Recover the amino acids of this structure.
């Protein structure tokens, strides 16, 4: 088990450092940060001074190494805009994002999984077809389109809900629903196919042949097996709690991490962008790690393998 | 056409696999084939029989050069087998073909049967267009299909007809050797009989030598001139099928023969204890000794060699050779 | 025959309008062992899946399956659930996939004990241990806590049998129980089924494609072809005087284990597809004795002697003979 965890952590560290490197390269290649921040008509001396102050005049690999070194020491740099610590800027936005993504996750799981199970149990029924049509629509329609449609209907036409901003809980309803519906559709489709696969297995027939009532066959025998693939998708969703709302936050002008990222990219605010990406990578990697451990918990075949390896 | 001379000779074949225990475990050395020697004469059939994991299918792939042995050698037609992938090997492969258990898996679902039968002729550049078409018709007839069925796709044929199509394709290059790996075990009883008859007929007609790999001793007797019984990567007994079935010399062969379901047999069945062993966890000495009803102390220490008895039957058993007095079996090791 | 334990009469099944069973009549007496033989798709498994209501919802089922006066066809779920695993238990071909991979062996046995014998907790666990012992699983106490993937195929089939025994069934239906197993393990499982039958007195229906397997374990055999029973006889009589050409064909297709090597009497052609059933006898297109009358209508099963029935017009003269004999 120890070896299993150690190998996962090593892999996670590698992933994160690759994300950091990638972000560094892309941002440096897409324009001169000094010029963008100081403005096109800033005097050349001021731009040069800015460069010197932020170390942008050093050779690129020196910048990269010192940046990497700083991260290892826990220093994520300061915003080039207002000079505050990037980590502070980012963390103060996290609660706002979670205020959208956590309720949305609840909708995804609370709506998607039951809908998928119901569709699988009533395969080819009218309800199944409706669930499938909605599910396909739900994940083919991009979230900004769905968001705008909801705004048109509930904010513009009906006037029931505000179209953007963060003044009250009512402002959160539309972005939460936008996020939740898309994810619920993905989860419903996935749960349905996982359930159908399991229901076709011989051990389901064995359970029925034992005299287990159908409801207990579904709950006691089918669900625990169908949960194994479904957990992967939920893991992805947990992993995107921080970064999954970039588009929706922009559509609804919600001041979360996603909006901060969009603004920081536009400004070439390197430290902030890198800090957000690092945060996203860490949450993704952590949730993957949790998924792997959950697998072991849900599937004794994998648990046995991990135990033997220890 | 009549048998004459050795076509295929394998000497001390060894095939090891590194098997990982669990997903992250260390690799364990598994000897799937552990020193197998066999010899096949032209136009004859050697049956290779044993339970799953005994290495019979691996042996089949080794003699075709589809896998490279870790030890030992194969010679075909008196010359050593060229390395797999070389042009010399590809030329030789036209003369050796393989038939698998699952005909649907062996055929390409998107191509009609005739197109698949002609393929080996195209690959090996045999004949021109017209002669190839004629040859395909002949082949289809030889395996009991109508030439018009060549236009059918695999899913439009029954299981037995598909296996016939596979045989037609295998015979296209007029091979000297056919390795059949469980060719009938996926088929229904009445269809099994059709295919067994067909194999015998085709051998008669084309003089093809066959290595018939099967778990079914009755089927092996029906089509083979010799039979080799394998257990855990080694041949434990080899001889004429009738002799082996009537009077098996190795205790494992005895159990296999007695396990053949047979109406009207009395209660003298030998039921072996325990499961077929794991090749990754090979017992010391004779690999069969933990399940053997007559094992002795010697059997646990020293592996018996495969050598001829007075009547010419090859057996690898201390007791059968009189090197040890039949015991009552050794206490079984605790299962892992 | 004494009062049958299970009586199947006129059982039909179709899937999406295509017939899978075309009228099955079969009775199983208490404690007897009946074999059901036929090739894939002949309906031998479907018969018992239909009897227990285990077919998917799209199956259309007709006829009657009676156990102790209770008709199972169309019976409410509560009735079926008491019969399944209680009065009639069933085991299947592939033991590895027939057990739930995420539940421990012990739990899968005690589940049946709770359902049919109301046992829970330590009592259920002790009984599960005893059952694993009874089916010959070594070190049963420890095996209660392992998962199916930690056992071999043969041991998993023993576990399946232990689960089946948990409800103390009057009938065990074993659907190709040895087909997925190695030859020597097949012998172990057949031996076990025999000894359990002696110990418990339960009846056995053994479904197999292998006449040899059935011959060893059963007293009586029903041969099925294309959704019907074409012949039914005591096992010895079937091997000596098979009346139906299909049975004769199956026997001729078995390679002998001794005597001179002869060409196998293979049955030509293949089984008819359900959507292209011949109008009369389904075997007629493959039959060496086919006559015009064979295509006229489906032949009824006629009794040749007591306990030997065959559905073939050529068996008819013997019927006349049987009718002349006092009943």
């Amino acid at each position: 088990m120890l070896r299993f965890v150690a190998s996962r952590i090593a892999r996670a560290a590698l992933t994160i450092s690759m994300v950091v490197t990638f972000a560094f390269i892309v941002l440096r290649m897409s324009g001169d940060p000094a010029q963008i921040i100081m403005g096109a008509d800033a005097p050349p001396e001021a731009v040069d001074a800015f460069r010197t102050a932020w170390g942008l005049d050093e050779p690129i690999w020196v910048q990269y190494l010192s940046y990497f070194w700083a991260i290892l020491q826990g220093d994520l740099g300061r915003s080039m805009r207002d000079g505050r610590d990037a980590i502070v800027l980012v963390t103060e936005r996290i609660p706002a994002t979670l205020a959208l993504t956590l309720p949305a996750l609840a909708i995804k799981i609370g709506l998607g999984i039951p809908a998928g199970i119901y569709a699988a149990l009533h395969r080819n029924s009218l309800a199944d077809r409706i669930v499938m049509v909605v599910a396909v629509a739900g994940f083919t329609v991009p979230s900004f389109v769905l968001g705008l449609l909801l705004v048109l209907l509930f904010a513009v036409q009906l006037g029931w809900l505000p179209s953007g901003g963060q003044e009250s809980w009512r402002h959160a309803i539309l972005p939460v629903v936008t996020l939740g519906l898309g994810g619920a559709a993905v989860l419903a489709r996935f749960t349905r196919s996982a359930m159908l696969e399991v229901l076709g297995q011989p051990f389901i027939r064995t359970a029925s042949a034992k005299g287990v009532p159908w409801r207990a066959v579904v709950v006691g025998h089918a669900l625990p097996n169908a949960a194994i693939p479904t957990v992967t998708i939920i893991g992805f969703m947990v992993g995107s709690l921080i970064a999954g709302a970039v588009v929706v936050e922009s559509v609804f002008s919600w001041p979360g991490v996603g909006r901060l990222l969009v603004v920081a990219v536009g400004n070439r605010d390197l430290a902030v962008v890198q800090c957000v990406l690092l945060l996203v990578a860490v949450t993704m990697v952590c949730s993957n790690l949790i998924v792997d451990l959950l697998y072991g918990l849900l599937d004794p075949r994998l648990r046995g393998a991990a135990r033997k390896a220890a | 056409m009549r048998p004459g001379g050795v076509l295929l000779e394998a000497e001390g074949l060894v095939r090891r696999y590194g098997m990982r225990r669990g997903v992250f475990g260390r690799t364990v050395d598994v000897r799937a084939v552990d020193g197998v020697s066999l010899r096949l004469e032209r136009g004859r059939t050697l049956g290779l029989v044993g339970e799953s994991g005994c290495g019979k299918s691996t042996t089949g792939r080794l003699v075709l050069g589809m896998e490279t042995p870790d030890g030992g050698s194969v010679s075909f037609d008196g010359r050593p087998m060229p390395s797999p992938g070389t042009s010399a090997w590809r030329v030789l492969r036209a003369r050796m073909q393989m038939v698998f258990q699952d005909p649907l898996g062996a055929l390409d679902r998107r191509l009609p049967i005739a197109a698949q039968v002609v393929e080996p002729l195209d690959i090996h550049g045999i004949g021109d267009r017209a002669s190839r078409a004629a040859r395909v018709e002949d082949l289809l007839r030889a395996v009991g299909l109508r030439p018009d069925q060549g236009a059918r796709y695999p899913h439009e044929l029954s299981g037995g007809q598909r296996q016939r199509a596979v045989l037609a394709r295998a015979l296209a290059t007029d091979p000297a050797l056919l390795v059949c790996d469980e060719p009938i075990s996926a088929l229904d009883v009445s269809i099994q009989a059709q295919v067994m008859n067909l194999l015998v007929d085709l051998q008669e007609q084309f003089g093809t030598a066959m290595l018939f790999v099967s778990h079914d001793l009755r089927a092996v007797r029906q089509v083979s001139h010799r039979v080799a019984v394998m257990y855990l990567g080694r041949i434990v007994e080899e001889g004429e099928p009738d002799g082996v079935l009537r009077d098996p010399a190795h205790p494992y062969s005895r159990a296999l023969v007695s396990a053949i379901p047979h109406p009207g047999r009395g209660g003298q069945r030998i039921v072996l204890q325990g499961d077929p062993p794991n090749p990754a966890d090979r017992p010391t000495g004779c690999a069969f000794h933990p399940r053997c009803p007559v094992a002795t102390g010697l059997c646990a220490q020293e592996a018996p060699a495969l050598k001829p008895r007075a009547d010419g039957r090859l057996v690898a058993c201390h007791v059968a050779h009189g090197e040890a007095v039949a015991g009552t079996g050794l206490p079984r090791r605790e299962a892992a | 025959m004494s009062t049958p334990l299970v009586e199947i009469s006129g059982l039909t099944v179709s899937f999406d309008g295509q017939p899978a069973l075309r009228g099955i009549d079969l009775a199983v007496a208490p404690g007897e062992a009946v074999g059901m033989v036929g090739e894939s798709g002949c309906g031998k498994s479907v018969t018992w899946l239909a009897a227990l209501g285990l077919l998917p919802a799209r199956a259309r089922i007709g006829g009657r399956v009676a156990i102790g006066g209770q008709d199972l066809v169309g019976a409410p779920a509560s009735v079926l659930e008491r019969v399944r695993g209680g009065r009639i238990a069933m085991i299947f071909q592939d033991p590895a996939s027939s057990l739930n991979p995420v539940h421990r062996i012990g739990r899968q046995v005690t589940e049946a004990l709770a359902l049919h014998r109301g046992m829970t907790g330590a009592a259920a666990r002790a009984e599960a241990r005893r059952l694993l012992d009874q089916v010959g699983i070594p070190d049963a106490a420890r095996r209660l806590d392992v998962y199916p993937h930690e056992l071999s195929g043969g041991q998993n089939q023993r576990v399946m049998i232990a689960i089946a025994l948990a409800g103390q069934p009057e009938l065990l239906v074993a659907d190709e129980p040895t087909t997925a197993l190695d030859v020597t393990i097949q012998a172990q499982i057949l031996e076990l089924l025999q000894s359990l039958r002696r110990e418990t007195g339960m009846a056995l229906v053994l479904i197999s494609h292998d006449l040899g397997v059935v011959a060893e374990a059963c007293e009586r055999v029903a041969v099925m072809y294309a959704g019907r029973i074409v012949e039914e006889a005591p096992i010895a009589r079937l091997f000596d005087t098979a009346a139906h050409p299909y049975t004769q064909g199956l026997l001729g297709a078995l390679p002998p284990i001794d005597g001179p090597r002869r060409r196998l009497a293979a049955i030509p052609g293949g089984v008819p597809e359900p959507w292209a059933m011949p109008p009369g006898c389904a075997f007629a297109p493959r039959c060496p004795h086919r006559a015009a009358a064979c295509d006229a209508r489906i032949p009824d099963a006629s009794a040749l002697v007591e306990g030997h029935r065959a559905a073939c017009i050529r068996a008819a003269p013997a019927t006349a003979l049987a009718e002349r004999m006092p009943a």
About this structure: Residues 317-327 of chain C have pLDDT under 50 and may be disordered. The longest helix of chain C spans residues 183-200.
